[in-house]
């Protein structure tokens, strides 16, 4: 695992110890997939604290960590305080962006004020550049998504509800290698497709509807993310126009993704195309985001993000146009940043498909 990366944060922030509570960071640094516990890392020791439900799993998955089991009726703060006292620890860095306030208060009281340094996104950013092994997992998850989209092209039809279509997508992914979903599947048809994060409902898909499907799954913990918009039946001229603009913007965005490019500049390339076509106000979200153990990671392809892309970073490129009362289009691929461009991990067709 990548626990040695945490040591750089220890040194840079001049900490005695780091307390890790975020599930993705716990998995990244230790290998432990359990839902409960903490990592306690100093310059000399690495401890995984959990309860009896996960002890066996923790020992198998985190061989580089000493596993300590919470005793019955013992609280984490008590166990952590005993560790900190034994190690002479005073200044502990903690994940302020994910630790619940009530949990922070309890830990701070039990540990006599030792949680002194807010880590912000320091640990999250350790995950921003992926190894080839991580990218292979992301690519496999996206491959399952490709297969699921191909399957949907054979089953989508008028009369099917959005909920039925979402269930079909999810069932296919889980029976073809996915261990979980990356997020709640979005299937939005007709006028509902104007809502970027619409929730599938009982609306029946009708002939002539846009159907936007935004979906992803997990493989070995790593997420995929893909969006495709199709038309059930024949597309109208305005549908073709909007789809063509989004596709042009998406292809331009993909061309702009490369090592050395600023995230905000990539966003601008795609956004300018949509704005020039007269639909700038109908594209309200950022162009994309990173993906990894979480579906939304940093950096983002956003106008406010000046991060410079590096090889090994993952980005989605997902422009959209959303017209209330009419419908919307979004096209999304997930790519790996390379020196002279990007490697597209999605392979599903992007030309307008009429079913």
Describe this protein with a few key phrases.
355 residues; alpha+beta; Creatine Amidinohydrolase, Chain A, domain 1; Creatine Amidinohydrolase; 2 domains; six-stranded mixed β-sheet; three-stranded antiparallel β-sheet; 19 strands; elongated
Notes on the protein architecture:
The chain has 355 residues and is an alpha+beta fold. The chain folds into two domains: 123 residues, Creatine Amidinohydrolase, Chain A, domain 1; 213 residues, Creatine Amidinohydrolase. It has a six-stranded mixed β-sheet, sandwiched between helices. A three-stranded antiparallel β-sheet has the order 7-10-11. A hairpin with a 2-residue loop joins strand 18 and strand 19. Helix 4 crosses helix 5. The longest helix is centred in the middle third of the chain and has 24 residues. The chain is elongated and about 70 Å long. The relative contact order is 0.11.
Describe how the helices and strands are arranged.
Layout: H1 3-12, E1 17-20, H2 23-30, E2 38-42, E3 46-50, H3 55-61, E4 66-69, H4 76-87, E5 92-94, H5 101-110, E6 115-118, H6 122-125, H7 132-155, H8 162-174, E7 180-181, E8 186-189, E9 209-215, E10 217-219, E11 222-223, E12 226-232, H9 237-256, H10 263-276, E13 288-290, E14 297-301, E15 314-317, E16 320-323, E17 327-330, E18 333-338, E19 341-344
Parallel strand pairs: 1-5, 3-4, 5-6
Antiparallel strand pairs: 1-2, 2-3, 7-10, 8-9, 9-12, 10-11, 13-14, 15-18, 16-17, 18-19
CATH class of the largest domain: Alpha Beta
CATH superfamily of the largest domain: Creatinase/methionine aminopeptidase superfamily
CATH architecture of the largest domain, by name, is: Alpha-Beta Complex
Q: How many separate helices?
A: 10
Please identify the structural class as seen in this structure. Answer: alpha+beta
Average pLDDT reading: 97
Order of strands in the sheet with most strands: 4-3-2-1-5-6
Question: What helical percentage do the residues reach?
Answer: 25-40%
Gyration radius (Cα, Å) is 23 Å
Shape verdict: elongated
CATH topology of the largest domain: Creatine Amidinohydrolase
Count of individual beta strands: 19
- Report low-confidence residues grouped into runs of 5 or more: none
How many independent structural domains?
A: 2
The helix/strand order is: HEHEEHEHEHEHHHEEEEEEHHEEEEEEE
Distance between the termini: 46 Å
Strand content: 15-25%
**Largest beta sheet, briefly?**
6 strands, mixed
């Amino acid at each position: 695992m990548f626990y040695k990366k945490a040591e750089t944060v220890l040194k840079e922030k001049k900490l005695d110890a780091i307390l890790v509570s975020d599930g993705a960071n716990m998995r990244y640094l230790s290998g432990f997939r359990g839902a409960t516990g903490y990592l306690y890392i100093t310059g000399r020791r690495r401890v995984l604290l959990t309860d009896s439900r996960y002890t066996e799993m923790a020992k198998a998955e985190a061989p580089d960590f000493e596993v300590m089991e919470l005793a019955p009726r013992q609280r984490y703060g008590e166990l952590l305080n005993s560790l900190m006292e034994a190690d002479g620890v005073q200044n502990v860095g903690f994940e302020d962006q994910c630790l619940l306030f009530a949990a922070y208060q309890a830990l701070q009281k039990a540990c006599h004020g030792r949680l002194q340094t807010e880590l912000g996104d320091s640990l999250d950013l350790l995950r921003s550049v992926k190894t080839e092994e991580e990218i292979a997992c992301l690519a496999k998850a996206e491959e399952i998504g490709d297969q699921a989209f191909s399957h949907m092209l054979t089953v989508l039809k008028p009369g099917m509800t959005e909920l039925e279509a979402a269930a079909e997508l999810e069932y296919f992914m889980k029976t073809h290698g996915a261990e979980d979903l990356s997020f709640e599947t979005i299937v939005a048809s007709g006028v509902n497709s104007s809502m970027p994060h619409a929730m599938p409902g009982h609306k029946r898909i009708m002939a002539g509807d846009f159907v936007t499907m935004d979906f992803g799954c997990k493989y070995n913990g790593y997420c995929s993310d893909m969006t495709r918009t199709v038309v059930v039946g024949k597309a109208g001229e305005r549908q073709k126009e909007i789809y063509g603009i989004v596709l042009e913007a998406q292809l331009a965005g993909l061309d702009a993704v490369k090592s050395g490019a600023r995230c905000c500049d990539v966003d601008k390339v795609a956004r300018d195309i949509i704005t020039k076509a007269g639909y700038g106000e109908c594209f309200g979200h950022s162009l994309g985001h990173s993906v990894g153990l979480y579906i939304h990671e940093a950096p983002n392809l956003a106008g406010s993000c000046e991060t410079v892309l590096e090889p090994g970073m993952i980005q989605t490129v997902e422009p959209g146009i959303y017209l209330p009362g009419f419908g919307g289009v979004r096209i999304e691929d997930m790519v790996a940043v390379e020196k002279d461009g990007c490697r597209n991990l999605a392979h599903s067709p992007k030309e307008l498909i009429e079913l």
